[in-house]
Amino acid sequence: MSVKIYGDLGSGSLRRVITAAKIMGVDYERVNVDLFKGESHTPEFLKLNPHGLTPVLQDGSTIIWEASAINIYLADKVNSPLLGTTSQERYEVLQWMFWSGEQWRIFSTLTFDERVGGRVMGKPEDTAIVNLTLAKIRATAAVLDAHLADRPFIVGNGLTLADIDIAAPFSQAHRTKLPLNTFPNLAAWQQRLLDTVPAWAETRRDLDDRMDTFLNALDITL
Ligand SMILES: N[C@@H](CCC(=O)N[C@@H](CS)C(=O)NCC(=O)O)C(=O)O
Predict the structure, then answer these.
(1) What domains lie within the chain, and their CATH numbers?
(2) What is the pLDDT of residues 4-33, one digit of tens each?
(3) Farthest CA pair distance, the chain
(4) Segment 56-97, tens digit of pLDDT
(5) Looking at ligand 1, which atom is closest to the CA of residue 12?
(6) Surface-to-core class of residue 216, CB atoms within 10 Å of its CB (0-12 exposed, 13-18 middle, 19+ buried)
(7) What is the Å distance from ligand 1's center to 53 Cα?
(8) Which of 5, 6, 9, 13 to mutate to test the pocket of ligand 1 (most atoms within 8 A of CB)?
């Protein structure tokens, strides 16, 4: 029986799960949750995730929310090298995934809320928030850029879930206007993922189609 993955193709968080599921060859069914229509806040959906956030995974009676936790669950289920190939690597992958949630993606999410979400709602960008988020992103991107100076991936010599988590801000970067491409090793790593991980390129096309169609319908140019 295939697992169900709930989410909207325009979501960078869903993209992390769909990318990993495709790489791991997981048999899944995507259940569409239209975030632009607020479908993650229906009483029925809130039974799956009381936070009203996607993605959510349902595997029989197992329900998991948070993209990183879903990816770890799936990687364990199929014994995938995406969680590292040694015990040491596994802890490094987890270290970067936890760091990514707390110190990295949060600032691009906040920038998205201000620059894209706010625009859709007709609210002006709060410059104090954006100044803070961009300063945090620049400082952290500099560390990532140095880390990637002499290695092709975040951990070890192959793609892991750490790459997928840390690459997430690139999903909306040209809409949020994040300064990521000013960091050469970071930009080269992102291009390497697009060139060598077909699922990462495929999910980008799906995400861009979904976002562009939605924004064009509202006549919004970012
Ligand atoms: N930390 C969560 C983030 C989840 C999240 O922010 N999901 C967004 C889409 S990217 C969402 O479902 N938003 C719906 C809403 O806020 O109404 C994860 O990694 O899964």
Answers:
(1) 3-80 (3.40.30.10), 83-217 (1.20.1050.10)
(2) 999 999 999 999 999 999 999 999 999 999
(3) 50
(4) 999 999 999 999 999 999 999 999 999 999 999 999 999 999
(5) 10
(6) exposed
(7) 4
(8) 13
